[in-house]
Amino acid sequence: MNIDCPVPYSEDDVVQLGHGAGGRLTAELLDRLVLPALGRRPDGPLEDAALLPGGGELVVSTDSFVVSPLTFPGGDIGSLAVHGTVNDLAMRGALPLALTLAVIAEEGLPLAELRSVLDSAGKAAQQADVPVITGDTKVVGRGAADRLFLNTTGIGRRVPGLAPSSARARAGDAVLLSGPIGLHGTAVLSTREGLGFETDIASDTRPLHRLVRALAPFGDAVHSLRDPTRGGLAASLNEIARDAGVGVEIAESALPVPSAVAAACDLLGLDPLIVANEGCFVAFVAPDIADAALLALRAHPEGAQAVRIGHCTTAHAARVELRTLLGARRVVDMPSGEQLPRIC
Amino acid sequence: MNIDCPVPYSEDDVVQLGHGAGGRLTAELLDRLVLPALGRRPDGPLEDAALLPGGGELVVSTDSFVVSPLTFPGGDIGSLAVHGTVNDLAMRGALPLALTLAVIAEEGLPLAELRSVLDSAGKAAQQADVPVITGDTKVVGRGAADRLFLNTTGIGRRVPGLAPSSARARAGDAVLLSGPIGLHGTAVLSTREGLGFETDIASDTRPLHRLVRALAPFGDAVHSLRDPTRGGLAASLNEIARDAGVGVEIAESALPVPSAVAAACDLLGLDPLIVANEGCFVAFVAPDIADAALLALRAHPEGAQAVRIGHCTTAHAARVELRTLLGARRVVDMPSGEQLPRIC
After folding, report:
1. What ipTM does the predicted assembly reach?
2. CB B54 within 8 A of CB B67
3. Which residues form the PurM-like C-terminal domain (chains A, B) (predicted)?
């Protein structure tokens, strides 16, 4: 893995917001501190979910949710916590078998609000057809947490034939995107900052496992799947380019950016490529099945707007390039990640 | 389940510290709000870990850790997070297959401190012979969390023949305790409050799965296991008495309370029965194997001080009674739980 800054952390270094934003700083923290501490080699692909050792086709994923505000157009921390983990499992080709749900609540949080987001989590789990089988509830004093944090861990079973991995993308692959980008991050930011886009933009938070299952007929030709949450599409494409050692080329003209998202990004000075999503994924598939896979995605409501956005190449290994509307090329960097704290 | 206060929560009710303390308020919150929201029947036994649906002998447990301070005599939040989840799996008779670890860090936390507790988690996982297979890192702004919270979720496989459940205790069972009580809670409280007991008391935090495995030869005669963490021995015994519908009778003379713990509890006005532990468990076993089970526990260093503390009876179903040193009887209530926040 390429780290721009190879010096070890000094004794004075502290946790920064960007360490949690899913971009370059997060990757650095994982490589230089977290993974070595936990005895993991930092050079393997970092997937959305891990295979359970000795567990056959079982995969496991965990995520904590610290989104602020707790409720936003299109969802809340409860539905987000269910969808986020269901989707991380789906990105390994797995359908969810069970979820756990752990609550950290701040003293003084209205129980009505806790009930509302847990009801929402319960409904989301029911709609995703996955039981919440165990949980945990902790309370900290006033000021020791910001209202409510959730953690969900999911266990899933891989759909027979599907074995996507970020390391399996290869030159020639078509890059598909299952839906429009930028909705979740702009919906949360707009609500938090009171920007007034809340009527036009709603989070795309939704479960994606059924859409992934629609790719099952293509089996091994489905090489890599990733949902562009923190760090947005730019982070997901860079992670796959890095893990697989391929170049990724995408066309700006093909990117589905809703006009309200574009307007919000203009106002906020954000690139839609780095804004978090919670209801779409990229699929790297063999070129000969790309059209059929696209049709399979479009046959589902949550994939109705699926498009092909690019392809993989040997030309610029481990790098992502964008062909702009004017025909120029620019490198799409891994976002450093400070811009969008607490988006999920 | 008996709830003293059957009225629904009002719109003005808020989260209290006691809701997270593992006692009566926690049980109430689960029954009246959390479990209904998640579509779970509130009348079944609440175990330390759940069986994975369709997962054969796999069990799953999740816990968030918010202990303050992060480091205390005998351990830190990292080792505690590993031991806590390994032990919850063990209480269902399972050995750990894999852990997940999710971090919520406050902006400004020294990276050296993060590294220290993650190193500790890594070492604890290695010593428990369980890999950390996936994780998550979130950062919140200054003041939005108190330094560091962790979540661990564990997946384990039941030891063949062991199927303990809090509902399986029955009249006549012997109640065994694997080690002394009160060490963890008093160590954390003493450190937090600067009481000066830190030289005499260290947390008992340790993995208990090998000690549980020592009970495997007794198979089905091992009815119930529980580690008395939040809410202490009083909560664990009450939970089993309630879930199994049996009376539990314990002898004060048999309770192993280290003298330093007794002194700290005197000073703090605490009953050692409600102080959290992280390195012992109670086992409800058939009377005919009790002596042999005790010998099996004592053969391991972590069970060297195992003792029989009481038995189950039909006399006072769902109630726990203590025979005092003076021969009197007193009811051991489920602690309400406000007294010891952020102990784990």
Report:
1. 0.95
2. no
3. 170-320
B186-237 pLDDT, tens digit each: 999 999 988 888 788 999 999 999 999 999 999 999 999 999 999 999 999 9
Domains of chain A are 48-158 (3.30.1330.10), 173-331 (3.90.650.10)
**pLDDT tens per residue across span B71-114:** 999 999 999 999 999 999 999 999 999 999 999 999 999 999 99
Interface membership of A132 toward B (CB under 8 Å): yes
Q: Which two tokens stand for residue B230?
A: 């939040």
Closest among B131, B133, B100, B276 to B205, alpha carbons compared: B276
User: Hey, which residues does A331 pair with through a beta bridge?
Assistant: A321
Q: How many angstroms separate the CA of residue B251 from the nearest CA in chain A?
A: 31
CB–CB contact A53 B29 (8 Å): no
pLDDT at residue B126 is higher than 50: yes
CB atoms inside a 10 Å sphere around CB A260: 18
Q: How many CB atoms lie within 10 A of CB A160?
A: 10
> How confident is chain A (344 residues) per 10-residue block, as mean pLDDT?
57 93 91 92 74 90 98 98 98 97 98 97 98 96 98 97 96 98 96 85 98 98 97 96 97 97 93 96 98 98 98 96 96 84 90
Q: How far apart are the first and last CA of chain A?
A: 26
pLDDT above 50 for B312? yes
On whether the CB atoms of residues A1 and A43 are closer than 8 A, the answer is: yes
Provide φ and ψ at B124, rounded to 5°: -60, -40
Q: Is A216 on the interface with B (CB under 8 A)?
A: no
B60 with A98: Cβ contact below 8 A:
yes
Least confident among A262-266, B42-46, B280-284: B42-46
Rounded to a whole number of angstroms, the distance from the CA of A307 to the nearest CA of chain B is: 30
Q: Provide CB contacts within 8 A for B148, sequence distance 6+.
A: B70, B77, B103, B104, B105, B106, B109, B113, B114, B117
Mutate to test the interface with B, among A40, A46, A60, A227 (most CBs of B within 10 A): A60
A 43-82 near B (Cβ less than 8 A): 47, 49-55, 58, 60-66, 68
Would you list the DSSP string of A142-196? Answer: TTSBSSEEEEEEEEEEEPTT----TT---TT-EEEE-S--SHHHHHHHHHHHT-S
Choose the closest CB to B39 out of A68, A102, A126. A126
With CA atoms as reference, report the closest residue to B52 among A59, A343, A76, A78: A59
Best residue of A142, A151, A165, A166 to probe chain B, by most B CBs closer than 10 Å:
A151
